[in-house]
## 1
Amino acid sequence: MLVAPMSSLSFSTPRFQTLLREHPDAIAAIICGLLVLFGWLALHVGWLGLGLLILPAAYVIGGYSSAREGLTTLFQEKELDVDLLMIVAALGAASLGLWRREYYFIVDGAVLILIFAISGALEGYAMKRTERSIKSLMNLTSDTARVLHDEIEQFVPVEQLQIGDTVLVKPGELIPTDGLIIEGYSTLNQSPITGESIPVEKTVEDEVFAGSINGFGALKLRVHQPPESSLIQRIVRLVEQAQTETPPSQQFLDRFERLYARIVVLTGLLLVILPPFLLGWNWETTIYRALIFLVVASPCALMAAIMPALLSGIANGARNGILFKNGAQLETIGRVRAIAFDKTGTLTTGKPQVVKIVPVLKASETQLLQIAAALESLSEHPIGNAIVQAARQYQLKWNNAVEVQAQTGQGITGIIDNKKAVVGKAAFVQAQVKEFPANLIEISKQLENEGKTVVWIAHAGVVLGLIAVADTVRIGAAQALTELKKLGIEQIVMLTGDNDRTAQNIAKEIGVNRVYAELLPEDKVNAIRHLQKHYQTIAMVGDGINDAPALASASVGIAMGVAGSDVALETADIVLMADRLEQLERAIRLGRRSQVIIKQNIVFALSFIVLLLIANFLGDITLPLGVIGHEGSTVIVTLNGLRLLRN
């Protein structure tokens, strides 16, 4: 019965090897702690030789990692860091103990090493949590895809998929790569990718994303881009980039640490030499206090004040469909005072939809849609596609049109039921009918003044009515802008290449403060620069290629993840994966919370360093107490930064 437990603790078991590989600092800290305990017990009972044999092993095992880091920095970069300061302090305590034959100093040094090792293990564990939260994105994709060749299923590694391949996804399976549905209907859980909590309905011609979870229906997909270009792979690359880039505030602290370490070493040397002459201290007290000074003055907590908070914020955002490309942008978004929005595809859906059907007295809405759809179903024009889509939503059927002819920018004609049908602009239709209802002309002008595109329909020489088509406001846009104003955003503007009339109508509907219309891409850049002069920190939200220059010019560029072009996604600093504008509020709140936490950490770290320094010279703290205070403050600062992992 005892064999199994003992074997489970064996150093050769896979469990222990995995633990050692993933948490080597924790294993070193545990072994160091046991050695310190046994060494102290040996000295306590008078086994001096055994104690002096065990305690150096604790120094080596607990301090190896810090010594390696410190010496690497010293010899390769010619700089001092806090790791080396800790080792010097511990070795100084051991040397003092051997010199004075007061061996409790050796125990003090070993305890210093132990607490420093425990602190490093706790910080490593805390940072692993953030790293696991971010890297969980990388486990969202399947390794293989079920490819159909002549209706025969073959499992193929995802990286070997080719554009044009047909992929079968069965109910409950992960979508292996981005693709277009060519057959089937289902609901997909896209929350791992976009943060959407509600499953999304998908059918033929809809795009699906790798990492989404298929619902009840089988789907056939056509691969339309290389697997490495899929949305999830772009997310992974951008998150990896975010982890490696250092924000300006952290760069400043890194430079400060090196200067600060030199000052601490120089001050420590002066404290070893001057107090016996100036304060009358004995040499033992002087050296001991100097060693404590090296410990408590080290800026470990200060150095941990920033990155845990920023990485936690990045992880929180990634879980909720907000992709920060680096910590600098998480810092910046919290300081934004004004936001500029592109209109088409950002504040609006970017897809024309039928918004009004106005038949004449003898006609019906159904008849209007049937005639228009019969002609427009043979057209590729976006407005025509919107009309056909509306007819399909009403589940209408229509007779085929023949002899169809389109005139670019004017309209389309054809024969339906042996009678001529005309769909298009007012002038185009008016030239081919006998009467033109005056009341429809007034209605048409009113709709056009509202920024809508009006399509006239005639059949057999008689006007049947008109259909108004418009780019509709994105769901939630108005509420999102309202919440941004509540957050204190001072100015919300719209930048668009569309005409001023249409832009003003959209702006009025959703609550935009100011409109810049009929802009070229370079005009959008100039508008951003003008706003920066007044508000300093500006965010730009866009989706298209023409938005890329403005996204790059803004303090923070924000792209729509689904609707956004590849250029916009690459240029932007933040990506809203689900195209949900309400996530802007969450992004800004995350940025502001990160700034608050960072300021809390810096104030706490500096205050604790000052408190420990005063206690060292005016009080009577021991080296272990100094270490506990120093390392405890570092752990507290790190854990405080990790609060952003919570939703």
## 2
Amino acid sequence: MKKVLVVSTLAVGLSFAHHGVASLGSVGLEGPGAPLETSSSATIPEGKWLLYLKLDHVKWKRYSFSEFPDQKDSYHFWTYGIGYGLRPWLSLYLFIPYYTKKEIKSKDGGFYSYTNSGFADLSLMAVFGFKYDKGFKLVPRQESLDDLMDWHFTLYGGISLPTGNPNKYDRSRDPKGEFEPDMSTGFGKPSITLGFTATKQLVRFPRLTFVFDTNYIKFFEHTYNYTEDGRRKKYKFGDEFRLNTTLAYRFYEDMDRKLRLDALLEANFQHNQRDKEDGVKQSASGGSILYGVGGIRLYYKSMSLGAGIKVPLWKRLNEEGQQQGSEGKESYRFILTLSTLF
């Protein structure tokens, strides 16, 4: 029988790191391992619910204030999620993000802290699961442990809803506010996500699981309330492409106590297109980054706790010397996830 216990969900990132991206998939206590940042290929069992919480704490590298008078300091991305198994091969998700963004800014020869917090754009996702076992098949209602070692795949897609506030401005230095779309908690327009995953628990070494995930996020131009020269500002965040892989190793297990501990090693590649303001591509935006993630995942009965550190290993930003506060310029990201299935 398939013993499904946990779902690994959600991640965050973007140029300027101003939004979160969901990673999806459920795993069993005795089945394949589940990543932190990479989406796995397991679906939620039919009729089951998933509750999920994730924290992505981002600490930015700081530089000389003579070079950067205003600098991003830290972000906290909280994401609350709920999922439902509509069919064994079809899972639905709702994600509710809450962001806190802090930067240090110059004023009158000194500095002050500006923080923007609030609920961000809601996200709806659907996951379609299938497998390969002498041909492609929909994920069945039940699978043996041997069946779980087959190649499993998902196609997933989703849309964000513009429920966050894109129009909150810092007015400490200018009464009319300062236009900083990357410090907002909403995009103002929906965004669309499409992705694909593949997962394989190795038959000859079943403690090891390989996971592959790729996705594309499309953003659209939004007209803000902020005006300049009598015209309202228009801004579009750059589209994103991601390519992720994970090795999950079952380090410890005690089936009598329903306890399991996995070690995780992930590689996350991300390419961000340039942002556009009033239709013009922006400097100091966009580029490519390769992240490394090291972490653990602890399973106990129907619950899972994951934790890890994510750091940039390589980057090629478009104007790296000007991109303090852009993705790839983090000191580190601390990731914590908690999920339960019922």
## 3
Amino acid sequence: MAVEKTIHILPTEAERATLVGRVWDPESGGPRVVAVRGDDVVDLTGTFLTVSELLESADPAGAVASADGVVRWTLAELVGASWERDSGRAHLLAPIDLQVVKACGVTFVESMVERVIEERCGGDFNRAAEVRRTVGEALGGSITSLKPGSEAARQAKEVLIAESMWSQYLEVGLGPDPEVFTKAPVLSAVGFGADIGIPTFSSWNNPEPELVLAVDSTGRVRGATLGNDVNLRDVEGRSALLLGKAKDNNASAAVGPFIRLFDASFTLEDLRTEEIVLEVQGEDGYRLEGRNNLGRISRPFEELVEATHGAHHQYPDGFVLFTGTLFAPTQDRDTPGLGFTHKEGDAVTIRSRHLGALANRTGVTEELAPWTFGLGSLFAYLRTLEPARNGVSA
């Protein structure tokens, strides 16, 4: 897959968007907080040491607009180095740092059905088509408009239970409380161009194209980006208690390309009907398209944020929240009836009109570069920047 043209990574209305992110800077040996201004990428690290600090501003978009910054790179060169995975050149990182990476599951009724199928299959993809037919017949195809926690949702749950299809996914898909889990450790998410990992212990897996909300320490949503919540269907299908093994592996969370901050031209309302488009292009010539239409999400964004943050749980450095996906890959890749699973080298692109495009390739988790730059490394790097920030010679 060739390097995409610069404009393809950006939102359709890029000239109006306030976009911030992070760049790995080989010259200083660490991550820089950046903003996109036209074709240029401006280093804002002199004003904001972390993206978390930036999002805690009273007006993040206004702070970015007024911040002094140095033009250090062009967007084209960063996109090229990132897609070529050239670690010796400046390249894009996930646009988050100190934020905890949280995720919501089963936020679309259709995706709940697929989770029930995974569980009924016991992680065996050979049974998926048969179980999907059985579940569809039991539901009668009439649950897509159900509101979780409603009387109608309770009745739909009873129908499935009566058909011996009880599942814990019914509770979070149709009940009053959403599923919220920790997707990945702080600083472990990968950004545009990086390889995403598929472990050797999984043989049934897929991408999950999702909207990711960027939330500050007080629970205010400050902007949004795109994410790939890489999913191991066979592992989670064996038992929901294996969620950590299914969701949290090296390079299993991709976020980017940038956080688009809310401002006068872009608010949370603009995302309520956002359509996120997925494309998988395999080295074997296989091509898959999918769509995640947020207009069909079963719980409003505010409910998901409130279930994550509040008197019951605080996040002093903020958090990002994967909001779930409508997409479920049922299109066959090889053998009829066995559906989709990743192969090494798949190019995965997730894009939307307001947020741009996040593109990655799949690799074998155990063979990817290990995650080594953690909080200790970040703090050591930031200490080297403090003298310059305070106007003191190093």
## 4
Amino acid sequence: MITPNRLIDDEHKFRSKGFWIAVVLTVVSVGILIKLGLWQLDRGNEKLRYEQQLSERAQQSSRSLDAVISEWKESRIQAQGASEQPSLNGLKVDVDLEMPSGLVVLLDNQINQGTVGYVIYMLGKVRLEDENNSLVAEKQLLIDLGFVAASNDRRELPQLGSITVPSKMSGRLYTRSVNPLSHELGLENTTPNRIQNLNMAALSQYTGQEVLPFVFQPQSLGSWPYELLWRPMAMKSEKHFGYSFQWFVMAAVLLFLMLLIGYRYLKATPITENNDG
């Protein structure tokens, strides 16, 4: 039987300020966790579509660099204003260099299987022609030549010697994501030049000739001494789906615990004083 004192105590608990603060904090916290889970789920689906695109492009035949650039420019014009711009990542191309050597730079702070080092890049001059084989422009193409380990002494740079590559190569294109916290080129006057980020605009300004806004990675360079790293994405879709599951589980656990605590709080027997008559 529910006594009047118990009803009054329950009403007091229900109206207490602390009770409603706990309810609001629980709702906000669970909402944030669910939102994080949905965000990771969207990112996972986005990466899954990207992985499928890369897989399809891996099966395609190589095309000329001129044709790929022309098609890419047209697709960018058509997608102007859209949230998602066309990507060149993974497209296979054939490249003809004007010269087999050029300016070499080392991209700093790269890691390969736990080893800190650099990615070697070389600038090569390419001729861009139209359908009638007429010269449109000469531009610089950044070529990925692989990973080299760094010395324990940061002042000592790898001795690469004279680097030359074949004039005709087949490979794939990619772009590196821009770090919003640090995107400056950070070029150092060393031999070879060390840079902190791939900033194509700054590289263009430094060389005095426009550098194309993507990187070319050769498919094979024979007995090349440096490992070519293919990392078209920082994180695969499986990790995003895993993080999404974790956020949803945390939201469910938090909600369950707060409901359990709230239930026990409301059902707790009040402590009353016995007065002798």
